[in-house]
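Let us work through a complete example step by step.
Step 1: write down the sequence.
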Amino acid sequence: MQGYELFKEKIYKKTGIDLSSYKERQMKRRIESLIARNNIDSYEKYYEVLNGNKELYEEFIDYLTINVSEFYRNPQ
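Step 2: predict the structure and record it as tokens.
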């Protein structure tokens, strides 16, 4: 599947998430599983869908990011 480099750039501009900071094979596998799950055939089309579908956008963010809580972790 082509278009990953352009997808990374667009995602960085849209979200501030730098996908280059992660292992490429792992990140591509995760994103491609989301693409396939939603019956989309390219990174370009997936990006377009993410822009127009809040639910899929949130699914993408939740799937790729780790939610960190610092609540009560360091009381000092």
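Step 3: interpret the result. The longest helix spans residues 24-37.
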